[in-house]
Amino acid sequence: MKSGHESLELIRxxxxxxxxxxxREELQDxxxxxxxxxxxxxxxxxxxxxxxxxxxxxxxxxxxxRPARTTWLSGRPLIAAAAGIVFGMFCTSIVFAxxxxxxxxxxxxxxxxxxxxxxxxxxxxxxxxxxxxxxFTEIVGEQQGVKPSSGKQMLRFLRADYEGKVNPxxxxxxxxxxxxxxxxxxxxxxxGGAVAQLSAGFNxxxxxxxxxxxxxxxxxxxxxxxxxxxxxxxxxxVIRESLAMACNHRARLDRDPKTxxxxxxxxxxxxxxxxxxxxxxxxSSLSRRPVTFDGHYLDDVRLTLGRRxxxx
Amino acid sequence: MRPPEDIKHDQFLRLYVSQExxxxxxxxxxxxxxxxxxxxxxxxxxxxxxxxxDLDDPSNFRPWAFGVAxxxxxxxxxxxxxDRLVFDADVLELLADEVxxxxxxxEAERRALExxxxxxxxxxxxxxxxxxxxGARVDALAAEAGRSxxxxxxxxxxxxxxxxxxxxxILAQEGLT
Lengths: 312, 177
Hints:
The structure holds two protein chains of two kinds. By secondary structure, chain A is α+β, with helices and mostly antiparallel strands. Chain A has seven helices and twelve strands. By secondary structure, chain B is an all-alpha fold. In chain B, helix 2 (about 35-50) packs across helix 3 (about 60-80) and helix 3 packs antiparallel against helix 4. Chain B starts with a helix and ends with a helix. Classes of the chains: A alpha+beta, B mainly alpha. At the A-B interface, helix 1, helix 2, helix 3, strand 8 and strand 9 of A face helix 1, helix 2, helix 4, helix 5 and helix 6 of B.
């Protein structure tokens, strides 16, 4: 009979992908016969999933202003020009980087800290490719003790509705969206081996005890037809036709305006992906009633495309 | 004039967001790696979205979503019959039953985890942060830290066990165990 310690080591090996076939067999036998081992395994997996889910700040809480390698690479506009696609004059650039063996070459599709360009259109879903839209927001400089994560400006969430929204009184989530055309990169992900990573920084002024706010990032992979319907009909329900979706919503905003909280999500792109829909939001985590946003901010949005080995 | 589809969209997001963490824990129990779990979760999210109309009562979203996730995880397993690390179907069913039946306990443990992480010392948090960064590889992290992969795994294991003990203590104090 294996001790609890040895069972935990077997579970550890399995969860870490470090188990030999014999380990897997031994663990499976125990799981089949022993409810206690099943409970232990499920708890261990639950802890692992939660730690890996991005909802808990594990290391430094402060949001890094900007990775050094990005600064270096942003000064390579010729690469963007060669790619033939420029999403914005200042806020966006196409850059390549090597960030590690797991992702290999990484393409930065969007990097925006709201230093230029108009405020998001107040239309809910985007009507145009490459432009921000969403609920009522504004572009602001430092205010209420909150400094932009980088640059001199940031986006402020104002309300949970947009012009003409049906039933605005039921809204509790303030959203911004952006549609990104990735058709030029089909070679990068046409074999199902590419992943898109979306990250953004969120911040808030101190809010009262009894209130709570979560920040969320969503990333949808769309085909061209779905993206077209989305733009023309402004129909949020169209997103149900997404080829795939990833989200990360569990970052609870703290009450410290000095810290920017990073939230990210990763999506493996289906082979037929032609557009990505970015969706960033702040929502009340405690109340399902309509809320006001007295000082909730977004900055440093980054969308990258990299490669991982295709699934078997 | 936009139809009530916006409301459905909001409703889905609200429901999904409220249970996504639970779903991720559920799926993670049934597949060998975090990467696998993310893959299955993508498919689960899309299917939930498409089938939202089948949900009669929003208060039943979690059990309904667990059912969808179980279906997707089993389909994922069937596609990987040669993967030596995937458990047999009967064991996956037992694990799925375990998480479904005790979903509230696992949710409570997730809630307690945040304060337990805050109690770790900076070195432990740094190690966790590195190990759970997207795309992190233990062999590379270990080499960077000048230690063996096994030593890195062991350190990570000790931290996880400390966190499990901590969450149990918190739940016991709250009378939840």
